[in-house]
Design brief:
71% helix; two-stranded antiparallel ribbon; mainly alpha; 2 strands
Length: 335
């Protein structure tokens, strides 16, 4: 058995002053471990969106009527609060699981050798977005599920997914300068696709804010717009995104683009088709809760697909340190 070294007073002080550096000095994760940590953070950022949707779809948004406590007298949900209180409080507890996943990603990135500062910063960016969204989630409860704050809550979750997807991608590439894999016209087409996807998601939050699922069984304010009109605009934007994705796929095949961008575009196209089918079915079946939940998951996957397409347009090689050749070594020896 390997003997565990004793923890000295100096070690304890070092751990308190800078715990991340203390861990990094004693642990070097493999590249696979770092990738898994980043992927776990990404998966949890999607899970928290879906479970948040479940809170709204079960009318449990005010299951805990206040924040940061569940009630004025209790930090946790009580048996008297029933099903809605348990659902809302469980979703709050999942925030700690998300924090643990993000924390693991930060520790793994900080402990990797050599240390990649940019990767660690992406982990910390996720942490601060989680903290900000937790506060915003509390405000959502305190203002009685105001639809505009609910929309902002979802958009901030989308920002978290964006950073998590970026960090996951960065674990799979080096820190060299980005090199484009496609021409400028293709990059411009992808930018149009990204803008259309952003509008699609933003209008989707308006559909939610004006739709029938208010998030609680009590009287909750809604956005004062026609739900059906906004849903039709949402559908038009969805078709624009699908069309741009298909056009991008066609162009990439025509110019014999590398496999990375081509495969990511194909994946996005398939996700969009599935999401479109779900969207139309839920529209014509009066928004059943189960389909709305699946549609929210699809929304996250669509955005991750768009981000992956954007990131696939370039490659970042590893930075290779200069190694002296034989002639240089001989010169150094003579000197």
């Amino acid at each position: 058995m390997v003997r565990v070294p004793n923890l000295t007073r100096a070690d304890a002080l070092s751990a308190v002053r800078n715990p991340l550096a203390f861990i990094a000095e004693r642990w070097t994760p493999t590249t696979r471990t770092v990738r898994r940590a980043a992927l776990t953070a990404l998966v949890m950022s999607v899970v928290i969106v879906v479970t948040g949707g479940a809170v709204r779809l079960t009318s449990s948004g005010l299951g805990c009527p206040t924040w940061p406590k569940c009630t004025d007298d209790s930090l946790t949900a009580t048996s008297e609060m029933g099903f809605h209180g348990a659902i809302e409080f469980s979703n709050r507890m999942l925030t700690y699981v998300l924090c643990a996943a993000v924390g693991w990603a930060i520790v793994a990135a900080r402990s990797q050798k050599p240390w990649r500062r940019g990767l660690t910063r992406l982990g910390w960016a996720q942490f601060w977005i989680v903290m900000s969204n937790a506060v915003l989630g509390g405000i959502v409860v305190l203002v009685g599920l105001n639809p505009y704050t609910v929309a902002a809550h979802f958009l901030l979750s989308t920002a978290l997914i964006t950073v998590a997807a970026l960090m996951w991608q960065r674990t799979r590439e080096g820190d060299g300068a980005p090199r484009p894999l496609v021409g400028g016209s293709v990059q411009q087409l992808v930018r149009c696709l990204v803008v259309a996807a952003v509008l699609l998601i933003a209008v989707g939050t308006v559909v939610t804010g004006a739709g029938p699922h208010a998030g609680d069984s009590s009287k909750v304010d809604r956005m004062h717009v026609s739900w059906e009109d906004v849903a039709k605009l949402h559908a038009v934007l969805a078709w624009i995104v699908v069309t741009l994705t298909f056009a991008l796929w066609f162009v990439l095949k025509a110019v014999d683009a590398p496999r990375g961008p081509l495969h990511r575009t194909r994946d996005l196209f398939l996700i969009l088709l599935s999401q479109g089918v779900i969207g139309y079915v839920q529209y014509f079946t009066d928004l059943p809760e189960a389909l709305v939940a699946v549609h929210m998951l699809g929304s996250c996957l669509v955005w991750i697909g768009v981000v992956r397409v954007l990131l696939a347009l370039r490659e970042r090689p590893e930075i290779v340190a200069d190694v002296p050749g034989p002639a240089t070594e001989s010169a150094l020896t003579r000197a």
